[in-house]
User: Fold this.
Amino acid sequence: MIKIATIVLLSLSLMLVIGCNRGKVNDLEIARQELEEHAYSKSEIRLERLVEKQPENIEAWCLLAATYNRQDKAKDLETAVNKLREMGKPAMDKLVDIIRHERNMAEDMAKVLTLVGKSAIDTLVSALGDTAGHVRENAIEILTKMGTDSREQLISALDSSNVLIRGGAARTLGNIGHKSAMESLMKKLDDTAPLVRIESAIALYKLGDKSHENIINDGLKSDLTEVRRIAAIAIRDIVENPSIKPLIEAVRDSDMQVRAAVVRALGKAKDKIAIAPLIEAIKSKDSDISNAASESLKEIGEPAVMPLLDLVKQEQDIAMLRKAIQTLGDIGDERAIEPLEKIYAESKNSLIRQEAAVALNKI
Assistant:
């Protein structure tokens, strides 16, 4: 009888524990659903009750912080942030984990981590090595906002055994813009990893040392798609007066993101040599590449007018023809008036006539 009674008691205890855990999970899941449905007041009440009962429930505090953030309740958010800061590394890890798995709340968690400040730096530096790209990007953005507070840890991270952490640290140091990092970044130009070399060269360029542009250009030839993307975007966004030859060679890259960035960078070069490949690019079925080509041809301006007019005379595809006409209108050269008037008068396609009329009004 004693054995039976013991078994019964154990079973009842187990059921009680399971029941409590179910209630806990349900409250969190219901709060998540309320957040998703913008029922912030309901979510706030539910989570406040939960943290009152379970003051060390990290996940509940994270969700409560998100609820306060979405309602612009600055004082309440500060209270939640202070609580998470007190909870230390487990809380920082949970905030990053929510970014990793619940992208709809990534912005909220990033705001909380930024407000946490120095206490979150080590966790964020570790997140630079996350296998999920959006986690790395969030970590870079947050550490950049923290500025020089994270500089020492980032410089130390340049020697990490993790390639992604080294590369992310280099990029963030360039974003922060503190020249005291230049010596450490110089040492990474000979890193064994192409990713680290190019991120270090780009960071140094941002910090004023533009003597390593060749490393950025060489990135366009890398076997690694990610390195080619980084190189192309850097040339598009930060490199002044980019060299035309590496861009011409990369304009047919197998990766769409690389091609789109390269095509846009060709406009910055403002070299007539770029016109022919840009005319080909404006014919692309990919809208990002076609739009990038249009922007670059507009930037080159007058020298691109005649090649565009030649294209307009030959092109049969409606979408490409409209893009070429639109580009001519944006350039605004009077040599396009007569050909566009002819298109307006003779085209049987109402969309083409409309585009020609808009372009003519711009010239």
In short: Confidence is low (pLDDT under 50) at residues 5-24. DSSP finds 22 helices and no strands in the chain. The two ends are 99 Å apart (CA to CA).
